[in-house]
Amino acid sequence: MAELDTPLTEAFYYILLALRNPNHGYGITQEVEEITNGRVVLGAGTLYGALQTLEKRGWITVYSQDTQSRKKKEYMITDLGKNAFEKELARLNELVRNGKMMGGKNND
């Protein structure tokens, strides 16, 4: 599954992080904004497009759906999504480690 080896977009990364507990679209947006101190603001198009893609990949699933009020859906990360997230976290940690290691060297 090549998708698991592809770096995540920042939006995918933060959405998966926000879905470690069940959450709905607005809640995801709020949590991402809070986590990033307002640096990342997910617009509706970005959020719902990403949710569709993540659901198609099997990385998230619908946890519950409120059929009474505008069919609000809550999503949750799946084991496959956790695997993708962990691989991305390891990749990012490697980038930081290598940057720190090389950034400390003199380039004479």
Number of alpha- plus pi-helical segments = 4
Average pLDDT for all residues: 89
Return the string of H and E elements. HEHHEEH
Percent in strands: 5-15%
CATH topology: Arc Repressor Mutant, subunit A
Record the strand order, biggest sheet: 1-3-2
Architecture (CATH level 2) name = Orthogonal Bundle
Alpha carbon gap, first and last residue: 43 Å
What does the main sheet amount to? 3 strands, antiparallel
The CATH superfamily label reads Winged helix-like DNA-binding domain superfamily/Winged helix DNA-binding domain
Q: Which overall shape is indicated by the principal axes computed on the Cα atoms?
A: globular
| Total domain units | 1
| Rounded Rg | 16 Å
- Return residue spans where pLDDT drops below 50 for at least 5 consecutive residues: none
CATH top level is Mainly Alpha
Helix/strand class: alpha+beta
Multimeric organization: single chain
Describe the structure.
It is a single chain. By secondary structure, the protein is of the alpha+beta class. The chain has one domain: Arc Repressor Mutant, subunit A (Orthogonal Bundle). The chain contains four helices and three strands, in the order αβααββα. A three-stranded antiparallel beta sheet has the order 1-3-2. β2 and β3 form a beta hairpin. α1 crosses α2. The longest helix is centred in the last third of the chain and has 25 residues. It is globular and about 55 Å long. The model has no long low-confidence stretch (mean pLDDT 89).
